[in-house]
């Protein structure tokens, strides 16, 4: 996926000697019960140990000044009701429509730190004790902003599970089905912040939303071939097996044409798109290029003229916040399921 946040300046970090017991690298993320939470007071709940991207982390207490990067990550915190634990969020100002988001008040209760790309100085200036971001969702070696860099200045990190790298030294991302990544992060953070009941209630609600959408979705031979178009002219950026659109398309009743791409977000060749002849294109709406401009390009791009989706004008637009790992994913499945049924009746 692309980087989605930007800059600020410096201050002193709160020491974090015991917040994390292990450094973070790529690999799988899952909830563990290494130290089952005791019932009762918040004090009896800690320490808590979880597994995030293959690394165990131990929290002696709940972080108090979390900085989040990007809309999906920020809304995971809001959905869990954790605004009071946040120092603020970093994201551009195109975070999408908020009118129907149940947790939209979180944006007014927390500080919008910057619309620029997140960096170490920003975290220091916010006196962060934890940064919740992901590989290519803020963390990037080329920018000198990684969990290891933050650990050197006493700041902990939690990695978005969709962004876990799938091997030592690997740049490709993804170690579990995308919805499982969402549920893993909700359960992990529920334990870290002692809001397990709320986390489990969200997971139960989301699973039901998804099951209800699947029950109505197109099935078998009726499932249309679907391609996710993020952006790109020479080569399209799209979703592979491990990014949220895979589960959104599949659970909504589509056949994801890039399901064999074992990565989250990656670039492919137009010849591959033509060969797989998608019947529907889903456009990711974000950034400086509007969804209408992306649509116009697809409709006018000569190599695509015989692709079924283009010939039949079958295009769906979903918002960026629905297509990255976020609590908006289940609703995106429901809405896409309706759209696919309507389009394939034509």
Molecular structure report:
This protein is of the alpha/beta class. 33% of the residues lie in helices and 17% in strands. Strand 1 (48-52) and strand 2 (55-59) form a beta hairpin.
Characteristic terms for this protein:
alpha/beta, six-stranded parallel β-sheet, four-stranded parallel β-sheet, 13 helices, 33% helix, disordered N terminus
Layout: helices, strands, pairs:
Blueprint: H1 42-45, E1 48-52, E2 55-59, E3 66-69, H2 71-79, E4 86-90, H3 106-109, E5 112-114, H4 120-125, E6 130-135, E7 138-139, H5 147-152, E8 156-159, H6 178-192, H7 196-216, E9 225-229, E10 237-239, H8 244-251, E11 255-256, E12 265-267, H9 270-276, E13 280-285, H10 291-300, H11 308-311, E14 315-319, H12 320-323, H13 329-343
Number of strands: 14
**Which structural class fits the helix and strand makeup?**
alpha/beta
Poorly predicted runs are: 1-41
The major beta sheet can be summarized as: 6 strands, parallel
Order of helices and strands: HEEEHEHEHEEHEHHEEHEEHEHHEHH
- Report helical residue fraction: 25-40%
Q: Residue-averaged pLDDT, rounded?
A: 89
Strand content: 15-25%
Intertermini distance? 33 Å
- Count of alpha and pi helical runs: 13
Radius of gyration: 20 Å
Categorize the overall geometry.
globular
Oligomer kind? single chain
In short:
The chain contains 13 helices and 14 strands. The protein has 346 residues and is α/β, with parallel strands linked by helices.
């Amino acid at each position: 996926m692309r980087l989605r946040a930007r800059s600020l300046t410096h201050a002193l970090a709160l020491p974090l000697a015991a917040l994390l017991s292990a450094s973070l690298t790529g690999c799988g993320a899952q909830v563990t019960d290494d130290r089952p939470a005791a019932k009762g007071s918040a004090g009896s709940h800690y320490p808590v140990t979880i597994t995030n991207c293959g690394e165990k982390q131990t929290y002696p207490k709940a972080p108090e000044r979390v900085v989040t990067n990007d809309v999906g990550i920020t809304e995971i915190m809001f959905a869990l009701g954790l605004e009071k634990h946040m120092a603020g969020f970093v994201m551009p100002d195109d975070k999408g429509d908020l009118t129907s988001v149940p947790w939209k008040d979180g944006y007014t209760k927390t500080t919008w730190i910057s619309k620029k790309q997140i960096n170490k100085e920003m975290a220091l200036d916010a006196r962060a004790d934890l940064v919740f971001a992901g590989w290519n969702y803020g963390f990037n070696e080329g920018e000198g902003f990684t969990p290891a860099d933050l650990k050197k200045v006493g700041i902990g990190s939690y990695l978005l599970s969709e962004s876990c790298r799938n091997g030592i030294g690997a740049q490709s991302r993804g170690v579990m089905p995308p919805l499982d990544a969402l549920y893993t992060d909700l359960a992990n953070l529920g334990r870290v912040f002692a809001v397990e009941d709320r986390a489990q209630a969200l997971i139960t609600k989301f699973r039901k939303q998804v099951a209800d959408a699947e029950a109505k979705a197109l099935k078998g031979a009726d499932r249309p071939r679907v391609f996710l178009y993020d952006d790109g002219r020479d080569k399209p950026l799209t979703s592979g097996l491990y990014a949220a659109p895979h589960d959104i398309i599949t659970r909504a009743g589509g056949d994801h044409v890039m399901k064999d791409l074992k990565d989250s977000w990656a670039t492919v060749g137009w010849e591959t798109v033509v060969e797989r002849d998608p019947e529907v294109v889903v456009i990711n709406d974000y950034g400086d290029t509007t969804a209408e401009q992306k649509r116009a390009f697809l409709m006018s791009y000569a190599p695509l003229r015989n692709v079924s989706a283009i010939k039949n004008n079958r295009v769906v637009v979903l918002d960026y916040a629905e297509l990255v790992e976020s609590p908006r994913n289940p609703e995106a499945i429901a809405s896409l399921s309706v759209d696919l049924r309507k389009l394939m009746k034509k």
